[in-house]
Amino acid sequence: MTRTISRFTLEGVREADVSVHPFGTEDGLGLNLTRFLRSESDDVVLLVHGLTSASDVFIMPEHRNLASHLLDNGFGDVWAVDFRMSGRFPYDGETHRYNLDDVALYDFPATMRELRRHVGDRRVHVIAHCLGAVSFSMSLFAGLIDDVASLTCNSVSLTPRVPAFSKLKLSLGTWLLEYVVGLPFIDPRFGQAPAFTRPWMLSQAVSLFHDECRTSACHMQSFQWGAGRPAMYEHSNLLPETHARVADICSASGLNYYRHVRKMVEAGQSVKYAPTDARYARLPLNYLSNAADVRTPLLLLAPDRNRVFTDSNIHLHKILEKAAPGRHELAVLPGYGHLDPLIGKNSYIDVFPRIVDFLKRHSA
Ligand SMILES: [Zn+2]
Both ends of the chain: CA-CA distance in Å? Predict the structure, then answer.
């Protein structure tokens, strides 16, 4: 792949002092916060990526990105975390047994501790995507984090729901891939593997079912996530430069997270991966039973062409509305899929203003 945009570039955010803040988790992983500071602000924003994207989805140089949009709209102190699901770290391309409980228990409480060291007791608003949104919501509803002024979740939160085809992939697919094909993770770059190796053959087989474009990494993304051609986004919402580098934006993903998502889909809400494992005793068995006690208002973004987590956020909003009427908000995003609300060429017109409006109403 010939790159016109550098991988992991920070050049998409202009007129801000950029600093990096490494920190560690209780279970021994090194993570990172990146700060984009234009002006001291009473309201700080923390951006949380999904699996296996990275802070990159918020700072891409080829379109008007969310971090820049926030800086331009009065939120002068924006932070983006890279946690264990990040494509900027090797963790998810290695053989591992991490699940979303590890993220909720270790990554986000440590993120907030590091953030608070720098911003003190100023209001912190969180904008989270995909499994980052699921696991951050778990930290919040478990009471491991309680100092968040608002939480915006794109695509999904505490009630993951997926298309029927995804259910099949989540159950049979993970087993087949790991035990029969012998691959512990799926990589959108499998199409670049040497001919006739197992990764290459898998990519070729997947592309047989995708005639919507000629980018094998895009086909593999659809195989990794959801049910559709393509599954992750509407092609028409992306710039050609973004589509050409989808493997840089969302990289290899480990299979164990899929196993945990399957358990949640079966249960209809976030549940523990291993309910009897003492390591996770600080997490609840039911995240929604005390939903009325969670004072942080949520903005649930629900793209209406979501072929990864379908109507998850619409469903959750109904549940939360019963628990705490009027506290949380739902925003249906017409014409958008799972990821394009963040990486779309017109997101700064169609999506970001809705988020800024919510944040401003929960600011000073
Ligand atoms: Zn494509």
Answer: 47
Higher pLDDT, 37 or 3: 37
Query: How distant is the alpha carbon of residue 151 from its chain centre?
Result: 13
User: pTM higher than 0.85, yes or no?
Assistant: yes
Cα(96) to ligand 1 centroid in Å equals 29
What domains can be seen in the chain, in order of their start residue?
17-162+274-361 (3.40.50.1820), 164-255 (no CATH)
pLDDT tens digits along 62-73: 999 999 999 999
For 293-347, how does the pLDDT look when each residue is reduced to its tens digit (9 = 90+)?
Answer: 999 999 999 999 999 999 999 999 999 999 999 999 999 999 999 999 999 999 9
Instruction: Report the 10 Å Cβ neighbour count for 337.
Output: 25
Distance 231 CA to ligand 1 centre (A): 9
CA of residue 26 to ligand 1 center, whole Å: 39
Helix 130-141 × helix 108-119 angle, to 10°: 80
Helix axes 255-267, 130-141, angle to 10 degrees: 60
Closest to 4 (Cα-Cα) out of 51, 58, 60: 60
What is the 324 CA–ligand 1 centroid distance (Å)? Answer: 41
Helices (H), 245-282: 246-249, 255-267
CA of 228 to the centre of ligand 1 (A): 11
Nearest 10 degrees: CA dihedral of 195, 200, 202, 204? -70
